[in-house]
Amino acid sequence: MPNIQQLIAEMTLEEKASLCSGLNLWYTKPVERLGIPSIMVTDGPHGLRKQVEVNDMGGLSESYPATCFPTASALAATWDRELVQQVGIALGEECRQERVLVLLGPGANIKRSPLCGRNFEYFSEDPFLSGEIAKSHILGVQSQGVGTSLKHFATNNQEYRRMTVDAVIDTRALHEIYLAGFEIAVRETQPWTIMGAYNRLNGTYCCENPLLLNEILRKRWGFHGLVMTDWGAMNARVAALESGLELEMPGPADANDARIVEAVRSGELDIAVLDQAVERILEMVFKAQPVFAEDDRFDQDAHHALARRVAAEGSVLLKNAGEILPLEKTARIALLGSFAKQPRYQGAGSSLINPLRLDNLHDEMVKIAGSENIAYAPGYPGQGLIFDANLLNEAVQLAQTADIVVVHIGLPDSFEVEGMDRGHLKLPESHNRLVEAVCAIHDKVVVVLSNGSPVEMPWVDQVEAILEGYLGGQAGGGGLADVLYGLVNPSGKLAETFPLRLEDHPSHAYFPGGPKTVEYRESLFVGYRFFETVDKPVLFPFGHGLSYTTFAYEDLRLSHSTLTDQETLTVRLTVRNTGARAGKEVVQVYINPESPTAFRPKMELKGFEKVALQPGEAREVNITLGRRAFAHFSTALNDWQVEPGNYRILVGSSSREIHLEGTVQLTATQTPAPIPERDRVPAYVNFPSDARIARADFEALLGRPTPNNTISEREPATINTPLADLQHSFVARQLKKVVQKEIEAMSEDNPDSPNTLMITAMMLDAPLRTILMFGGDKLNQTMMDGLILMINRRFIKGLIKLVQGQKQLKS
Ligand code: BGC
C-alpha cells in the first residue's frame, strides 16, 4: 500500500473533491498523475450483476453471466453460518474473476412488513439472525480480498417513497431492532464499506445523518471503513461529508465536487474533514489492489453445486401431514404449475442476475425418478397472472391419474420488485384455484412454493404437505427435487413469521405510510415479537421448519442460576435424533424477561446453533449469552442497560415450540439506573393485540410530536419533491406529463414486466434532484434551480436561470 498521507499531501483541492464522487455508474475515479487507480463496485448481493454497458444509466441492462445463488430470504432460512460463508467465498471468487473489488451487499434491513418489495433481498424480521447471516456473508466475500457494502444503512424497510420518506422511529426500536443486525455485522467483520440508505431517519437523510454515521456507526461501533451513498441518494453534499459519508455514487457529480471545493475555500468545511474522507477512499482503493491473479477462474460446476445445496437447505418444510414426503421414486407424480418448467428463482431490480445455468423442478425430478413417473401440466398460463379454465381442467384431469400431486405455485416476478411494495399477501387467483381444484379430487396434494416473502394460504388445511422453496437461484429446481425425494433432509427454518392474514401483522396499520413520513408505531413489536407477546395465531411461526426425522431436546443446564451483569451465561443442552434418518436441527434460544419495568416483547432470539445428527446420535449444544443478550436500550442512559430480575431461557425449535425452559436471575453490580417514563409507556407495556397505538402514545414514546405528513397545496416544490407530487403550476404539471410520457414509451413493449413496473414506480417516487443525476450533459444545477423556480410560479426568475444554465453548459 502506498503512503496515503503522502498522496493526500500531493493532491490539489480539486483532486480531493473529485475523488468523492464516482467516475460513472460502477467505477471510482482515478488520479492518474498520482497512480491512484479506479476500482469497480457492483451488485450483489446473491450473485454478480456486472453490467456489460458500464454507462447505461437505466442501471438494469444486460449483465455478464454469473452464478445466481438463492436470494437472502433463502440464505437466512438455512440458519447455517458456515454454509452462508461458503456462498460468500464463492461470490468473492466470482468478483475476483470479473475484477470487481466491492460487492454491493449484503442487505441487512429488517423485514418490518411482509409487503416490502425487496424482502427477498433481506434476511429476517429478527435482528440477531439478520446480523449473524450478514456476518457470515461478509466474512466469506472478504476472505477473498474483495470488499462488501453492507446496505441499506438504515431503516430502508419499504420501497414506497424510499428516496424521500422520513422513517419516524423511537430510539429503542431503532437500536434494538433496526440497527442491532447492522451492529453485529459491523463490529464483528468490519465490512469494507457501508451503503447509506435513500430515506430519511427521524427527519434527516441517512446519507447526511451525523447520528447514524459519525455517532453510531463510527464512534459507538468502531467502523473504520468507507460510507457510500445508495445510487442517487445524495441530497446535501457538504453536510454528508461532515456527517461521515465519503463517496457519492454514481458519478460523476461535478456540481457536488465543486460544492466541496467552494465549501473548503469559504471556510464552511474544514479541510481536515475532506482529508479524512480522501484517506478512507484511498484506503479502500488500495486495499483492493493486490488481490487479482491472471488465472483467477472460479469453478462454475462447484458454484452450481453449492447453489443447489443452499437451495435445498434454505427450503422450509412447512407441513407434512401423514408424512407424505419424501416421495418414493416409484410414485406416479402429477406435477402441475408452469413454475415447474419456468422457474421463479430471483427477484427483480438491481440484484437481478443473468444466471450461468437454470435448472427447473420438472427436469430435476425426471432425473431422479425417471420420465415415466412424472407427468406434467402447466395448470395456469405463464406465471399465472390470468386464469385459464382449460389449463386448469387439463391439470385436474392429469391429477386424477396420479398417486401424488405436486403443485408448484408462488409469486410471479411482477409481485416482488425493487422500487415497489406489494399491496397484499395473496397468491394469484389462478394459483389458488389450481390448488383448490386439485384438492377437490385428490387427497394427496403437495404444494411447492417459489416466492421471496410470506403469502396467505387459504388452502392450508386441504393439502398434505407444503414446501417453501423461497427464491432458490439458478439451481433452485434441483434443490427442491432433492428435498421432495429425500436426497436432502429438509432443515430450513423460517426467518420470518407467516401471518394468517395481512391484517394481523403489527405493521399493517402504519405501512407504508406516506406521503412524507412513515411512523413505526409498533416500535419493538416486530414480527414474532408481536405475535408471541399478544399470543395471536399465525399461519407458521418464526423459526418453524419440519424434518423427515425427529429430534428430542434434553437436559438443559444453565451455567449460572444467578448472574451479575458482567458475567456470561452458558446454555447447555442435548439434542438427540430420535428418527431413522440423518438430519439437522436448528436449536433456538430465546429470552423472556419475567417482569421488566421497561416494556419488552415476550420473546427475543439471542442464540442459535445448527447441528447435524445421525439417527440415534445425541450432541451437546453450548450457546453463550453475554450481557447484551439481556439488555434493552435505555433512552435515559443513551446506552444498553440490563434490568435486574428473572429472565426465562427458552429453548425451542420455533418461537411457538419451546422444549426446554430455565430461569436465571440477573443481579446488578451497581445501583440500577431508574427506568425513564419513555421506556415504560403503558400502551407499550400492555401492547394491544390489534397493534393499534394512538398517536399520543407514540408521541410519548418518541418524546416529541410526530412530524407533519400531509402535502399542502401551497407548499413550494424543492429539490426533494417527488415527481409524483408535482401539481404546483402549469410547469409542474407539464413536467409530470413529460415523465409520464417517458414511462408510457418505456412500457409499450411490456407494461407488466418487472422492469417496467420498477422503473415506473421509481420514476414517480424519485425526487427532482434525481433528474440532475440522469440529465447527463443536458442539465446542470443552475438549470435545475430555474426549473424549480418555474414550478413554483416564479416564471421570469426561473427562465433567467434556465438560460444562464444553458450558457454555462455551452461554455
Ligand atoms: C439499490 C442498491 C443497489 C444500487 C446499485 C440501488 O437502487 O437500492 O441496493 O446496490 O441501486 O445498483
From TrEMBL:
UniProt keyword Transport present: no
Enzyme class, first EC level, given as a word: hydrolase
Domain Fibronectin type III-like: 585-655
Single Gene Ontology MF annotation: beta-glucosidase activity
Record Pfam families: Fn3-like (PF14310), Glyco_hydro_3 (PF00933), Glyco_hydro_3_C (PF01915)
SMART domains: Fn3_like (SM01217)
BP GO terms, sorted: carbohydrate metabolic process
Record keywords, A-Z: Carbohydrate metabolism, Glycosidase, Hydrolase
This enzyme's EC code(s): 3.2.1.21
Record-stated family: Belongs to the glycosyl hydrolase 3 family.
Protein name: Thermostable beta-glucosidase B
Organism: Candidatus Brevifilum fermentans
Encoding gene, per UniProt annotation: bglB
